[in-house]
Amino acid sequence: MTPALPRFRLPISVVRKSLSCSLCVLASRADLVRACQLRPELATTYADVEWEIGDVFKPDLSMLELIALAEGRAVDNDRLILLRLRTNHNRTARRLRTLAKKAVTVADYLDKAGRLQRILLDLQTRMRALGYDGAHDDWSLTS
């Protein structure tokens, strides 16, 4: 006869809908908020990385927002706006860097590169207006 496995229950305050990593990009908003409540140090580390790399945790959700929701406070909108601008800038810069591999003709390349550079310049202008100088990002692609 096989011995029965011990039964245990998690406190309801810890229960989540999924059993993935606590801060998984595939997790639901509610699970991510709960993970930020249970592991605030890890959430802060993720927010620091998010800021350092200039990209949000999920396309529609930043760690800044998740931490604010977990703590029951308003998000720092100025920082969130700047982070979203940086995300757009850095993604556009990546598109510009890889454009040469995808362009069909020289004219196509020049047209798309010019458009992407104008977008980058606009984003940089908006970030400067918020007091950001591009210290963490590559702004050389517009020169």
Which helices and strands, and how do they pair?
Elements: H1 29-38, H2 40-53, H3 63-71, H4 77-102, H5 106-129
Produce a short descriptive summary.
The protein has 143 residues and is mainly α. It is built from 5 helices and no strands. α2 (40-53) packs antiparallel against α3.
Description:
The protein contains five helices and no strands. By secondary structure, it is mainly alpha-helical. It has two domains: 29-71, no CATH class; 77-142. The longest helix has 26 residues, at 77-102. Residues 8-13 have low confidence and may be disordered.
Largest β-sheet summary = none
Taken as a percent bin, the fraction of beta residues is under 5%
Mean pLDDT: 88
Q: Tell me the distance between the termini.
A: 76 Å
Shape: globular
Helix-strand pattern: HHHHH
Query: What ranges have pLDDT less than 50 throughout 5 or more consecutive residues?
Result: 8-13
Helical fraction? 55-70%
Secondary structure tally, helices: 5
Oligomer: single chain
Radius of gyration: 21 Å
Structural class: mainly alpha
List keywords for this structure.
single chain; 143 residues; mainly alpha; 2 domains
